[in-house]
Structures are given as structure tokens and as C-alpha cells.
Amino acid sequence: MVSFDGFRYDFTTMADTPNFDRLELDGVKADALIPVFPSLTFPNHYSIATGAYSGTHNITGNSFCDKQYREKYSLYKKETV
């Protein structure tokens, strides 16, 4: 899966993008998506992976704590992601 935050569905039509074109030909492309709330990276990636909304998986930001492993994960702390 390739995911881009804030990347409009039609950006690849505005320039020559042979590598993106090849990915689309060999895979799938979504022309529209409805993000979960809050529309942040971690909550949406967890929803894609689990099929659950934020209220179920409880990831509501780009940082969160895993109570079982007592570890903090943050989009801004690359070694934990």
C-alpha cells in the first residue's frame, strides 16, 4: 500500500508520472475515499488495516501509548513506527 497525506486523487494527471502510472496499471487506485475522524495518518492507517473506526481501535492521533508494552508510538519518532 502507498499512502500520501493530503494527496488529491487527480494529482498524477497534472504531470508526467510514469512510475505512478505503472503502479496504477499493475494494482488498484482509489478515486475517492472518506477518511475516518480525526483525519490524521495513524487513525486512518489503523482503520485501513483493521476495518474499524477510531472509536473502536482508540487511535485518535499521530501519537499513542501501548499500555501492554508501555511504549509510546509517535509519527515523529521514526524508530518506534
UniProtKB/TrEMBL annotation:
GO terms for molecular function: hydrolase activity. InterPro entries: Alkaline_phosphatase_core_sf (IPR017850), Phosphodiest/P_Trfase (IPR002591). Gene3D superfamilies: Alkaline Phosphatase, subunit A. This is Uncharacterized protein. It comes from marine metagenome.
